[in-house]
């Protein structure tokens, strides 16, 4: 899966003020990513507010994204959940051309055992028409995919090719890197730890901040892959404050506000999410000025 090295971005789903999908804004966002040098795009991960989209809306977003990208860079579809049988049905019916892999979040809310997580992903991989990327984000799911389970899946299930790790646990990252098969990829799921995770041998990042700053995030990942960590550290430091502001009132409300201030798409989110406070929006505008990117609003 050479397509998964470097920087991917978990695309937001732009909405109009009435809550309908803003496909014009999505097209602007896609072009912003490609012109910025992003290596691949993830359509409808957590950042895409996939939990609030209907099945028909999900298909429309995946299809629109593939049609606009036109094969210029690889695409990954976010297809996950905690209802294994329903997820299997969705995967068996996924037939949208242009996608290279599936990103599937670990079952949330149910808090399965490690054996339950293993069996869930085994069923997912068997049903998926595309290679599968595990996604471990305990802060959202309520359970952790242990390094032992990750490595077991990597070794025993041939269609599982990578993991997006957002546990924040460097002991866990180190154990995965130590024990995984050589061709299994460890990908950062947290912008703030991309540099140190890649220093451990990670393959790259699936970024949130990259929605707004694709060139910077893509360059950072490329520097790390080239072992140019001195330059990467400087760029990492430059992005620390804007990364913090992205998440301080939740994702994707923060990065959508940045995109709105950059004139790319609106800041609208769907309930139960709400827009960030005026105070944080003002902080974002000031930080954009510091970075030399004046806000449009």
TrEMBL record:
Catalytic-site annotation from UniProt: 135, 164
Database matches in SUPFAM superfamilies: Aldolase
Site positions for L-lysine inhibitor binding: 51, 82, 86, 108
Its EC number(s): 4.3.3.7
An annotated GO cellular component: cytosol
Binding residue positions for pyruvate: 47, 206
Pfam families: DHDPS (PF00701)
Protein's cellular compartments: Cytoplasm
PANTHER family for this protein: 4-HYDROXY-2-OXOGLUTARATE ALDOLASE, MITOCHONDRIAL, DIHYDRODIPICOLINATE SYNTHASE
UniProt-recorded name of the protein: 4-hydroxy-tetrahydrodipicolinate synthase
